[in-house]
Amino acid sequence: MKRIQILQTLVVVAVCSVMVSCKSKPATDPTYTTKLTFGPGEEQKINEAFLSLKDSSVVYLKEGLYRFDNLSIAQLKHIKIQGAGKDKTIFDFSSQTQGGEGLRVTNLKDFNINGITLRDAKGDLLKINKSEDIVIADVSTTWKTADSSNGGYGIYPVMCKNVVIENCYAEGASDAGIYVGQTVGAIVRRSKAYRNVAGCEIENTSQAEVYDNEFWGNTAGFLVFDLPGLSQRGGHVKAYNNHIHDNNERNFAKAGSFGTATGVGNAAPGSGVIILSTSDVAIYKNKIINNNGSSITIASGFFVDPTSGDKINDQYFPISRNISIYENEMKMDTAFPKPIYEHRTGQVIVAIEQALNAMDPARKNARIPHILYDGISTNMLTMQKGINPDSICIRQTESNLFVNADAMRIGTKGWAPNTDVTPFTCK
């Protein structure tokens, strides 16, 4: 009966409507048939145990440092990995001689990992693939340095259903510290991400809520992306009550991998929130502070990849639609961060600010407006002239609020970015 109750709780939490707030009560631990306990120095036994686990097993890991090449758990039900706390039970993968990932979890149903730090793998630190009813709580993923030699993702559920990530911490990922990809039903809450390329990324994922988090010291704080060539389209994402601040660091994504035409390598230093090629996204009641390139960017795939139109299919549409932005607190410092001048997308953002100020001397060298919209709409596909055909809805009170970058004409004689938010202002 207890197991049924926890599964019901997870499903209710993770599939809440994007426009309805849903609260859950933490469930008590169910009873597991098999209980195993290990301590530091028993790494070989732990590795063997993970490979031979049976359904309904809990593994308790005592406080201390554990060193592994890699670990794997696959094709099981009702499994829990319980450490003594994320600052107490530490899995170190820095001496890996084989495999790229730290802990890989595949095809699990009802999986809980709690109270562990994973650090310094050659690839992703915690990858959970094709699994269902997942709870990741009180988990840290860290690399000592922030550079392109690190794995792409810290906490990385992909192609999953019903995921909860809470009270976690991620640092040093060369793509996203907390990443939820190609998943249906996800919650990221009360977590922190620092010194990654992207603090948190929701990619090709639907029915996701991101709230009560802090993302700071990254290249970009929070990303909602849909990319081409993946198994599903994302959307129905809402982010609220987050503190997204001081994301002004250099972009160290891997060239030729995460830095491809539509990947996170395009995130400009100084980005608070980036919405790219996705739909039905609500960004509200967040503190978006001192992200000194753009507080919020709304962009289409065409902004970073001119061939995006060739990639349209049931899983991908390059133009962002049905985007709501309201009641956020936004502030920006007096200058661009230095790394933006060395980044290709960053240079475009700098050029937009310069163009606005050159066209309107009354701006007196004002900063780029908080919300940067590339201005690329479905009009370019339908050959229509709708004023706001993609339902961009903005309700904010800041001065210097908005710029339509007129991105399809950047660099041409007719380029005319403008600050008229009226067509996008809604009740």
TrEMBL record:
<protein>
    <submittedName>
        <fullName>Parallel beta-helix repeat protein</fullName>
    </submittedName>
</protein>
<dbReference type="InterPro" id="IPR022442">
    <property type="entry name" value="SO_2930-like_dom"/>
</dbReference>
<dbReference type="InterPro" id="IPR039448">
    <property type="entry name" value="Beta_helix"/>
</dbReference>
<dbReference type="InterPro" id="IPR012334">
    <property type="entry name" value="Pectin_lyas_fold"/>
</dbReference>
<dbReference type="InterPro" id="IPR011050">
    <property type="entry name" value="Pectin_lyase_fold/virulence"/>
</dbReference>
<feature type="domain" description="Right handed beta helix">
    <location>
        <begin position="149"/>
        <end position="301"/>
    </location>
</feature>
<dbReference type="Pfam" id="PF13229">
    <property type="entry name" value="Beta_helix"/>
</dbReference>
<dbReference type="InterPro" id="IPR006626">
    <property type="entry name" value="PbH1"/>
</dbReference>
